[in-house]
Write the structure tokens for this entry.
Amino acid sequence: MKAFTYIEHGKFAMTEKPKPVIQESTDAIVRVTLSSICTSDLHIKHGSVPRAVPGITVGHEMVGIVEEIGSDVKGIKQGDRVTVNVETFCGECFYCKHGFVNNCTSPHGGWALGCRIDGGQTEYVRVPLASQGLNRIPDSVTDEQALFVGDVLATGFWAARISEISQEDTVLIIGAGPTGICTLLCTMLKQPKRIIICEKSEERRAFVSEHYPDVLLTTPEECLDFVKANSDNGGADRVLEVAGSDGSFQLAWQCARPNAIVTIVALYDKLQVLPLPEMYGKNLTFKTGGVDGCDCEEILALIEQGKIDTTPLITHRFPLNQIEEAYNIFENKMDGAAGQPHRTDADAFFVRKMEK
């Protein structure tokens, strides 16, 4: 089968690999029908993910159809349409039982698919610990509607959840790429008093204005003054930093009011400085880390109810054999695109509109 593979630092290529087989009784084999390119894939390509193993098939955001299950897999059956979780987790260790699945102690735990083991930019994928890693897609939900559930939408949902947002809050979201938009959608479920998006890209601001007209918009240069003028207590009650760009971490804590919560969703390529003397007395609470992606069933229910819709993020389609062209469009932000889902049964390859 065709598999888009991490060859070495700076190089991905299409290779031929054997179809995966069940290795453990908790495995499932999924025929991938739709997958995506994420900025995290580029982080692998450019050496920013030391855990990534050369030779693996990349891709960690996908949906598909269950082809085969191991004898100990529960809750799914052959023929089910499923989302595939970006994280692999056992459900039994201390961290899993407390909902901290990103830190599962299983040897398979954490971000494995498309990083340490073969992922989903291919035709078939083996999913370890499949009882936890797969969620059945409701019949009324399309593959396209469900595509982002296992990664970018799970990230937005987790970020909104741990930020403890109330209806009295002013919420600042820094970054309006796909993860920022998913974070916005999940923040909107909390019905805060106001939401402010800070985004430098004029195209992305136009996208937010078109689809979410009640959201206030600003730029990084104007953000600090704008937030102070549009909040009740001299700053945002909750700040969700999703951009991961130069200066965005500093902007996040500077825009927060005293005693606010600052949630760091972004993945940084460079070290960030925590200037404790400068922020002394603000008494901020920081929440950081990788997504605990254990809310996928709830997210699917919200999609089924029409409360979350990420399909406006999808703009382009490519077959799997044109994935290198799709990566070129994504990485170079051509054609208004930066973030790409694809259908790997050669029907279509989707491109997310904006970079994560």
Notes: The chain has a mean pLDDT of 91. The two ends are 29 Å apart (CA to CA). The CA atoms of residues 21 and 29 lie 7 Å apart. The first helix runs from residue 39 to 45.
